[in-house]
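WARN retry 2 of 3 for item q-0093 after timeout on previous attempt; input resubmitted unchanged.
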Amino acid sequence: MIHTIYHTIKRMVMLSFMGAMTATAMQAQEALHLFYKGGTKEKIEITEDTQVEFVKQPYMKAYWSSNDTIHLPAASGRSFDLGFVETNVGFTVSTDDDWLLVRKGNHKNNMGDGMYDCYFVVYPTANKSNQSRYGKVTVTSAKGGFTKDFVVEQHPYVLTLDYYRRGFDYERAYIDTTEILPWNDSTYYAIVYPNHGVEIASYPEWMELVKKWDGDDYCQFEDIMKVEEAQNAGQSHDTYVYFRFAPNTSVTDRKGQIVFEAQGQRAVVNIIQEGLNDKTMLRASKELHEMLYTSGGAAGQGYHNDFGVPSMMLFTESRGADLVSRVMGYNWFGVPVRYTDLSPSSVPTYVYWFTLYNNIDVINRNILQLMELGENQYVNCYLAQAYALRAFDYFYLAQMYEHTYVGNEEALCVPIVTEDNMHDWYSVGIPRATVREVYDYILVNLDKAIELLKNNTIAYPDKGFISVQAAYGLRARINLVMNRWEAAAADAQNVIDAGVARPYTRDEVSRPAFNDINDPAWLWGINADTADAVAMGFANWPSHMCTFSYGYTMFGAWRMVSQSLYKSIPSTDVRKGWFLNDQGTSPNLDERQNAYIQNYGAPVYTQVKFAPYNNMLGSNERDIKASDIPLMRIEEMYLILAEAKAMMGDVAKGVEVLNTFVKNYRDPGYNCTAATTEELAAAVWMQRRIELWGEGHSYFDLMRLGKGVDRRGAGFEQQYIFNIPAGDAALIYPIPIYEMSGNKQMVQNPAADQPVSVGE
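OK item q-0093 returned
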């Protein structure tokens, strides 16, 4: 037994120090402590006499991050990470030139007692000449037997405005550039390389120089070692210049130059600030819309379910009962499926809150500036979009952070942050307004938007902007939630009568569609052709929702229809083909599409409603992510009108509207025979579930109709078959933790971190 323990210990010691230790007979010990290179300190008790001796031998291993030649820019400060050494004996670092310093840091790490890393950062002083200069860095082990030499080349002084090249590729460095600034920017900064000797020769009289930081104090080694900023590569290579200027209230652009000079060199920024005209207002309006469907980093970097309103649509659809998906690694929307999104630090509540309030904040700031200019056609062009979008933002917030309007009018909803009180938010805080107050504020904004849109003289270029008809449609939605039936019917009828859109024909939806903003049925949508979301890889709507796009769906995150809903769709209804049947096929697919489905093994009931961009199946090209996303279609207006008529007691008119729409455009065999308000309301809800499937409406319908979330018979995995009653605390989101800590008057929702009440 003693012999076995001895040899076991010896083998472990040899492995842990890579053969650097030997064991010989010595004095008996009561306990033996071994320290392993992997970082684990392990104690082995010896209960019988064992004679062991440790002899520690030198160990040194280097990991270099470059070739033997180091290229440095002309600037002073931290310039290059050389690498690091693992050792237990120490070493020296030397340079042969006084303009070079190698900062050496060492610390004990997870390699065990007596072992430490040493890392190197090379610092040069500034090269103020027009010639490269050369030096050498040598690393030598203290015990000998190890030497590493590096040749250092520092590039000559080249003044440039290109932040990313900074003199590394100094022959291609930019010395002139043109900056286009929006009419209302109040600050601008330029970054000039390098960080010493740069002077501002001139700048426009309408700009005010606020700050110039060029790191002159950090050119000496003693300063480099003392000043933390100078040890950061992003802060020590460049000269930063900040300017402030007033809005340009002229319709014409104003121009000027910022001229930098250093070491006989010259660099110029040509400044063009756009005037207050239709071009700038349309661009500013478009930027507001783009904020709604790009990632704001609300959930943190690397989250593929953070891409604005399309994410919200998928979050809410996944919380409901009609869109079914499997909880697995590629399903980034599995959290709402499981109802484990009820934490104040969950991704969904972050995406909702920060995307929408960030947009509101930008709107508030711009409205404040515009109101100082007085009304004109250009200002009104922007204000119309701003008011409508602010209403849209608050409508989304109101529905996710409190229960539906009717019966909850005095319940706490969300803070109303406006251009007048926005500076109070994180100073004294802004309390949650009541549901009634929030909806009243939504309507005030929409009324303003509609009035401006009716008198608008500037044509919006596409349906990515909110038209007057889309604003009426949005107000019809809100009136429906508020049970203002006459107002909802009037707004919906107004949109229908305008004739700007018509429903998709039966032929047009007998194949995958709903991906083109130019389709005649669309009133408002996300024009993804130019959206930032196109470049977001897998973090976009088609990747998660379109069965035919290259993305998460093809790897198993399929979106399927509720089986009970599918079975309720008549065989004569073209919309039954929006989903695969129980054999995994659909009459709406052509041979190529069916082959694609079969190849990737889409399960039964998978949706095939949404077509990919240009019908490109599974392409991994950039433009496959450019499918447009519907935010409002004319079909919704027919359904709002039918429901409103039902609730007004005009059942006959409601039946007529519903039959006309469904018979003419979806199912020629359809015939609604409802005789009561309740029967007609149920028929309309069924049509909404089918027609608007996957477009972000179903969950909100459950909330406003008091239906709860009943997943029985839908096809969810067993553990996610919930039957959550209407009004349950789990149906609304908790306030994000950052808002709870930042807003001094915030009150949390009751469901935060609580288990879901699933019912029976």
